[in-house]
Amino acid sequence: MSNYPTEPEFEQAYNELVYTLENSSLFEKKPEYRTALQVVSIPERVIQFRVVWEDDSGKVQVNRGYRVQFNSALGPYKGGLRLHPTVNLSILKFLGFEQIFKNALTGLMMGGGKGGSDFDPKGKSDSEIRRFCVSFMTELQKHIGADTDVPAGDIGVSGREIGFMFGTYRRMQNKFEGVLTGKGLEWGGSLIRPEATGYGLVYYVGHMMEVAGAGDWKGKRVAISGSGNVAQYAALKVIELGATVLSLSDSQGSFIAQGDRTFTPEDIQAIMELKEQRRPLTDYAKKGDFKYIAGARPWVHVGQVDVALPCATQNEVNKEEAEALIAAGAKFIAEGSNMGCDLEAINVFEANRKEKKGDAIWYAPGKAANCGGVAVSGLEMAQNSRRLGWSSEEVDDKLKAIMKNAFQIGLDTAKEYVTSADGELPSLVAGSNIAGFVKVARAMHDQGDWWTKA
């Protein structure tokens, strides 16, 4: 784990993993895996650099750039680039650490990494963003490659930024290769990639419903936070499957459906266009159709709800909000965001699962539930390697299979390593953590990253 007390996000991610490993029979059955835990918790490499660029007034600006190359035992480092003023090493180490095990759960050959900068793209012109991206990639290109490290987008990095960065890499390296994912369809991108995280989240929760005996999505009332890529496509998919979307949000506040008025595909499309322009939800022309609560997340305001999908950012569900969701009747909560629930919230959900058994809320961690995005990034890498493209149907079918496998391996691993009472739903957070950790630990052992006495 970290030996720096100023890395709270990373320590939270580490402690969540350790808690589930310690409260299972893993170390009892395989005590040597404690050594693997020590090794996997330290990044293989951390790259930090300055990013100097010029704004439209000709003034020089400088930001911090990072790439945390955490673990490559299963394949090239794979994980997004985040552009946001809150970016620091703690956040990127937490994201990279989670990414190791998330990527392992996809079943694809991908290691874990994360990167980005404290640059804020909001309010910047296209020219300023292009100049920043060129400067950022001028340094990062020294450390990445199709068989070394394949970044993708994350918060603040859309197709526009990927394009600027890919062009810089291509010119400087004199190579056209699958070094970034989330590319344009005309130059190496994959169909279904924009939709993948949101769609995959919905497919995953569908398997939860089936195992819990709750039917399918038809008629379910769904609370969603966020209004970016993940939230948008999760909302569209659940509406397509017959559910009702009750909320969306952004960093300024939340829209809550009232009465018979719920979010429609037309609402989602209009909000997508707003967000492409980096405008707030409050600019939506039909905002009067919804209750707007400034500065609030939706969880305590949505009323009766069956499913909660946090799709904004880390730690967006706390203890009080977790209790409010349970009181509102929620039976499923799955993270579309990374570490969307804080540790106290997870403890509330897990305690309810043990107490209420089959009638409890069932919690799914982001490393399993939102792995669809990186899974299709992995499929984009495969298409790039073969210099071909698959149809939407082919990619979507592969995504469905990956999400089913990620769910099943978490379920089966929980049954193997975590004692459950009769009628109790298995712990998906424990099962997913253990399954991802064991897969990576085995690969590290085979490659000599850690070993035991002969």
List the helices and strands and how they pair.
Blueprint: H1 8-22, H2 26-29, H3 33-40, E1 45-54, E2 60-71, E3 77-83, H4 89-106, E4 112-117, H5 126-140, E5 149-153, H6 159-173, H7 196-212, E6 221-224, H8 229-240, E7 244-250, E8 253-256, H9 265-276, E9 291-294, E10 307-309, H10 319-327, E11 332-334, H11 343-356, E12 362-364, H12 366-369, H13 372-386, H14 392-417, H15 428-446
Parallel strand pairs: 3-4, 3-5, 6-7, 6-10, 10-11, 11-12
Antiparallel strand pairs: 1-2, 2-4, 7-8, 8-9
Helix pairs in contact: 1-4, 3-15, 4-15, 5-6, 7-8, 7-13, 7-14, 8-9, 10-11, 13-14, 14-15
Overall helicity: 40-55%
Task: Give the CA-CA distance, first to last residue.
Answer: 27 Å
Shape: globular
Order of helices and strands: HHHEEEHEHEHHEHEEHEEHEHEHHHH
Going by helix content, strand content and strand pairing, the class is alpha/beta
What percentage of the residues does DSSP assign to strands (E)?
5-15%
What value does the average pLDDT take?
A: 96
| CATH architecture heading of the domain at 196-369 | 3-Layer(aba) Sandwich
Helical region count?
Answer: 15
**Spatial ordering of strands, largest sheet:** 9-8-7-6-10-11-12
Write the CATH fold name of the domain at 196-369: Rossmann fold
The CATH H-level superfamily of the domain at 196-369 is NAD(P)-binding Rossmann-like Domain
